[in-house]
Amino acid sequence: MAAMNHCKRILSSLRLRNSLFFTQLSRTPSPNNQVTHYFYLSTILGARQNVFFSSKPESFVDIILTNDWSKQLEKGLGNLDFPVTHEAVMYLLKKLDKDPKKAGDFLKWVVKQKGFEPSSSMYSLMLRIYANRDSMKDFWTTIKEMKENGFYIDEETYKSIYSIFRNLKMETDATALKHFYGRMIKENAMGDLAKDVSELIKKQEWGIEVERELGEMKLLVSDNFVLRVLKELREIGYPLKAYSFFKWVARDLSFQHNTVTYNGILRVLCREESIEEFWSVVKEMKSLGFEIDLDTYIKVSRHFQKIKMLKDAVELYELMMDGQFKPSLGECNILLRSIAQSHPSNLDLLFRVVEKFEAAGNSRSKIIYDVIHRCLTNLGRFEEAEKITEAMRDAGFEPDNITYSQLIYGLCKLRRLEEASKVIDVMEGCGCVPDIKTWTVLIQGHCFAGEVDKALFCFANMMERNVDTDADLLDVLLNGFLSQRRIFGAYQLLTELVNKFQMRPWQATYKLIIQKLLGERKLEEALDLLRRMKKHNYPPFPEPFLQYISKSGTVEDAVEFLKALSVKDYPSVSAYQHVFQSFFAEGRHSEAKDLLYKCPHHIRQHPAICGLFGSSNSNSGKVKRFPRGSLSSA
Which residues lie in coiled coils (predicted)? Predict the structure, then answer.
């Protein structure tokens, strides 16, 4: 009975979705109306280019997400006229990537029931989806299936998954993947041929001679082979030559490009030197009825953002939002943040993204309001920023620490420090308690403006409010002191906070202050920090001490340094070796011998020490070298 009811719920859901879909068809929308994520192929319309889509989002995805995978669900899905295209299946898989089992079930279903043939890029996506502890059986099954079907793991996918395994401490699987990938590269004859082709193309300018040599190779071209050559040329940095090869196989070998190979060339051409060709391919795809798949969009968009080609990233987002396979809210947020973090922030690009997002029937999220607010405050347009804050309130989102921190940052940037400090009072008056990050932004703003004493005053106010400080904030304050060459003041602040509040500074913070102290010839204070590092279980930091003591330190300084190196009675033999070696390197043989007399008996009699001094006496100061870093065992 329970199974029967479950089946009825699924079928009811499917009928409702279809009803909504065909209701949309009956309304006969104009060609200019925006369409969204429903991509059911109408049996009435019959042609892919003439599909109209419902304004309701992602029905097919919703059906799969809201129901357990079962025979009943498969039967219900089979009754829907779903277009089994590369783009559509990639879209579904990306939407299901947080549910590996359901993604796998869906792919198996379209392969078995719809006769769909996965591409190498789709297999790569499935491997990334399966790259977790709970899906390893499916992961290795998919790899076996790829090999049986003549596909390979490309270098990008291999590196990505190998990194995931290492981060998850899955060392056994990481090692197995490494060995499998190595064997596959050697065994894959097609892969070798693809390398031969890419090497031929690489060594000379594209022209008649290259085309002649390629023609003599009598290549058997497939989707997989084309993708392999394109990826080889991408990895060695020849996007324009990859484009020439892409056109050549179509023209001279009569190879018919499809959505898989078109998406493949887009991933290669998303570079500044080939951006004209990129958009030319996009236009050509559109004329042929092909779509950019969601996985390709994400990779290309992230690359545009990485290399600061934000205008192209925005144009690509607009294109995708006008198509069937729309990017998620998360992708919209990532793009908006990239724009906001650019210098200076480009409000025109920002609002183009927001407007396109809203035109698809979406409402602004808190993150979107914050990104707009951040851009405006960063540009000093505070009145407009306040209007965005009011609009955010009207939409049901209260300003929080993120919102106020952005306002503080913008005010500090323009040296309006008093106004920035008053924001703290405004926050508390609104019931929003400033957190450590907000205080850090305020204090860092004062430090950047050269007002370190006022920054210290802000820090005192924070401490009075019982806000727990952290190593990041301490680092900000100390860098403020160092920017004004107040080295000893930085040392005093660090030691006071460690002593009174049991703070644990970053290792990098300790190292920086030690170097600055030694630069001011304050060895005693630097040694004090070295001892504190040991108490905090940081590895020793001997290099600047060795340099300082060997050039201008005394024997007593060397003795104190050796004592500070170890929590035990005496440091290791290698520690003594390095000190002696540094003295010899500066030609200070007498100081080295004086230090030797002050060493404990077991050090003076150690063969390594004896050999060191023997070689120095007979070889005019040329001493045995010891590997750097051996003091870490001290």
Answer: none
